[in-house]
Each structure stands twice: as C-alpha cells, then as structure tokens.
Amino acid sequence: MSVELTSRSIGTGETYYDNYVEQSVDCDVTLPDYCPDIMRIIKCTVANSITNSKLIGDRATADGNAKIRIIYADEKNKIFCYDQDYPFSKYAELNTVFDNAYLCCSAKTEYMNCRAVSKRRVDVHGAVGIRFKVVGNKSSTLISDACGEGIQLKRKGLEIDDVAAVATKLFEISQVENVGDSNAGIGKVIDAFASPILHECKIIKGKILLKGELAIRVLYCSDNDNNETCTSCCNIPFNEIIEAAAVTDECKVDVKFHVTRISAEPKTDNDGEYRYMNMNAEVLALVTAYAKQSINVVTDAYSTDTEIDARYTPMEFIKLESVLNENILCKQNLDVSSMKPQKLYAFSVSAPESICTAENDKVIVRGKIPVNLIVIDAEGVPVLCEREAEFDFSKVVGDGSALECMPQVTLGGCSANLTGDGKVDFKAEIFINATVTKKIREKVLTSLEIEEGKGKKDKKPAIVIYFCTGGESVWDIARKYNTTVEDIMQENDLSADYLENKRMLLIPVK
Q1: Residues 271 and 250 sit within 8 Å (Cβ to Cβ)
Q2: Distance CA 138, CA 487 (A)
Q3: N or C: which end of the chain has fewer CB within 10 A?
Q4: CA 193, CA 347: separation in Å to the nearest integer?
Q5: Cα separation, 81 vs 175, whole angstroms
Q6: pLDDT tens digits, residue range 215-258?
Q7: Angle at 471 between CA 467 and CA 474, to 5 degrees
C-alpha cells in the first residue's frame, strides 16, 4: 500500500515571545557645586535607551541606561536641569530555543516619583519596563495533494500572503548641527525626541532598500542670563539596505521602526562656545515581507479502498489587504487657563499612545499625544501642565470583511503657542504606518498514512437510492457511502457539488 503525497511549506510571521521585565530605579541625585539650589522641582523625566541586546540559546539579555533628568526652579524662579545616568542589565528566560529568530528590545518608563530631600539632593524612585520581543518566520508544512489507494480529497482554494522573510537591522544616525546664535549659546539640554519616518521602500535582487529621515527635536536652555528655552529641529536622512534573499520584486513590505537610543550633547565651536549640537540615535528596523500566493488546502480526506489515518491541524493564514503610510495633522487647543499663564516657557512631547479598531471595511486609529507644558504664571513662577492632544484617523480598506491592524504612530514636526484666552494652540504632524490584514482560519490536512494491517475494504458494487433533504454537499454524501464525488455527479447528471433542493439520488457504492 502506498500513497503519493505532495506537501508545501507556508511561512507565517510569528511572535515567539513578548513580555516585559521590570527594572527598578532607586537612587539619590546630588547636584554638583556649579548647579544652583533647588527651590521647587518642576518635573523628573527619564530617557530610556537600550545600548546592547542579544539572543543566546533560551535567554534574551538587554543592557541599557535610564537617564534621569531633574528639571527644577531656583529661588529666582529660573529653570535649570541636571542629568544622571542609571545603567541597568536585564534578562528574560524564554524556556525554549527559537531558530531563525530576532530579538527586538525596548524600554519605557512605568512610573517615576521624586522628592527633594534637601536643596542639593533628590530622592528618585521608579520603574522601567524592558520589553523582550522575539520574532521570526515560522514555516508550517501542509499536504496539498495525495493520490493512490482510492484517496479522496476535499480541497479549498485560498488567496493568501505568505511571509517570505522577517529581518531586523540596527543602525546609527548622527549629525552635528549649528544651533547657537550670536547672542546665546547652548546651555543644558532639557529634552530630546526622535521619530523615524519612512519615505520609500524598494526591493532589488534580494535586498530591501529603506529611504527615510529621522526627525529630531531638541529642547534646551540658552546659556545667557535670560534663561530662555530654545528648540532645535532637524531631519537627518538615512538610506539602509537589509539583506533578505527570499524577497522578490512582487513582495509587499511592512516596516516598523523603534528608536532604541537618542542623545543630544552640546559641542563647542572653534572659539570654545557651545553653539553646536551633536545629535546621535540608534534605530531598530523590523521588516516583514509578504508574497502573494494561490494555494489549495485539504480540509477533509478518506479512502474508498482502505482505512487511513488522517490528521488535521488548525492553521491561520494571512491575507494582506493594504499597507498604509499616511500622515495627518493633529490640531487642538489645550486649556491651561487655571494656571493663569503669562508665557509659555517650554513644551515637550512623548511618543503617541494609540489603539486601532476595525469596523467592517474601515480601519480606525485613535490616540493621544502626551504634551508637557511649562508655563509662567501671573507671579512669574514656572508651573508644569500635563495635557493630552487627541487625534483620530480612518480609512476604508479591504472587501468588507473583518480586518486586523497593528499600527505604528510616530510624530513629525510639532508646535505650541499660547493664545490670549489661556489656551495653548498645539499642532503636530502624525505619521501612521499600518499593515491591514485579514486572518483566514482553516483546519487543514497535515498528515496522512495508510492504517497497516486492516486490509482493504470489501468492494460490493451496488446502487443506493438516497433522498436528499436539500442543503447538502455531494462530498458529505460521497463520504458517507464510500464513493466518489465524481461518480455521484456523473450518475445523477449534476452540475454543482451543492444540492439546495430536495431530490432523489442514485448512489453508486464502491
């Protein structure tokens, strides 16, 4: 007894592991002699960066740094800031070894509290969440055809998008900008924020070419007596090549970026004045390439000649509906009138928080941009106002079926201006990158064997009269009477394999 099987492999992008490990941050920050005394803390921020990560066996490790920044006011209500590094190292036990897998690490601040113990010392307590995400291209094997020993197969055609490749690349972007003017140089950096923006993605001979820019916004104090804040914005272009041998020109590519490190340090000019800014960032690109495929899967099987052992596995296939690269403008008036603001001293933004829902054929992305505003009130005192700017985006995609979408939302340029009614006119350019997919779930044949020792079924040719009640498939009837779909359709002159109405059938039983 022998059955000739035809198998094929399907690639699916897989997240093997995705979990957070908490890193506590407990330290004392003591101001050096050159810093003024603390009269009031305005805000304590933490800029997290991953300096090194690796995947060895069943363990993922990440080294990083939490840069603690104390923004405070002195007795004259002038604003100053002081930084202190808090290095850390964490690992995650994966409990298994993953082949052809990539590690994507990131860090976010869970919470951060601080209090001034004295005019020179600050007690800081908080936690940073280290995200360990292991991704890869998982290959699954299914049976697409079988012949011999009277094998009958129920096939179903699917239009899917096979994951051809998953790859990552960590690259560095740096640039020195002349940001100082003739009246004031650069004092202390208050905040640095970076957003990668993809402009073009091309596939050339097994290579994926990414072209884009990194939008960097740096907020800093001037070094003059006015204690003013200044903002330096620049867009640094990048061109990166990612090797992916299995990728062809017909593939569609989804690209997700994550900034693992951003720093901005003042740099002196030839006269020894701090008028340059050294901007440096590391960006992790996660690339998934999809190839359109037309496949046949087997959803049921039996033999008219012998007993078989057929095994089925629930599988999830992906149909790529669309890859969105959209940009929108977020505009909102943020109310700070309760602070009686006389001046907007500075503002900073954090990465947008977003959720995505799918309603029939429409994808909807809603989110908020955390905005930190430092305003000067009527008494000349700097006050922190934390607000959120809301945004929403929707687009019709697909064919009306249920959709799934995992968007990445990044910020471009942004501005904030105090209006006369105690509100801040906030504007931000938002870039939305999203892969819209539809999940196709089928129970498919993955193993088929002849049951040895049971012999062939007795063949007793006969005709059975069967009364169809309507709403039945010819396959189910053929399987029940151990015959073939072709024989029933030929005997009864049928043109379709689904019987909607009641009728009598002649079943040629093998």
Answers
A1: no
A2: 40
A3: N
A4: 12
A5: 24
A6: 999 998 887 777 788 888 889 999 999 998 889 888 999 999 99
A7: 70
Calpha distance 36→465 (Å, rounded): 100
pLDDT above 90: residue 404: no
- In the chain, what are the domains? 10-138+162-291+319-441 (no CATH), 458-510 (3.10.350)
Q: Which residues of 347-372 are buried (b: 16+ CB within 10 A; e: fewer)?
A: bbbbbbebebebeeeebebebbbebb
How far is residue 40's CA from residue 75's CA, in Å, rounded to a whole number?
Answer: 8
Please state, as a whole number, how many other Cβ atoms lie within 10 Å of the Cβ of residue 386: 10
CA dihedral angle for residue 464, residue 469, residue 473, residue 479, rounded to 10 degrees: -40
Contact yes or no for 135/222 (Cβ under 8 A): no
242 strand-pairing partners = 208
Contact present, 43 and 386 (Cβ < 8 Å): no
- The whole-chain average pLDDT of the chain stands at 89
Structure tokens at 166: 């998953």
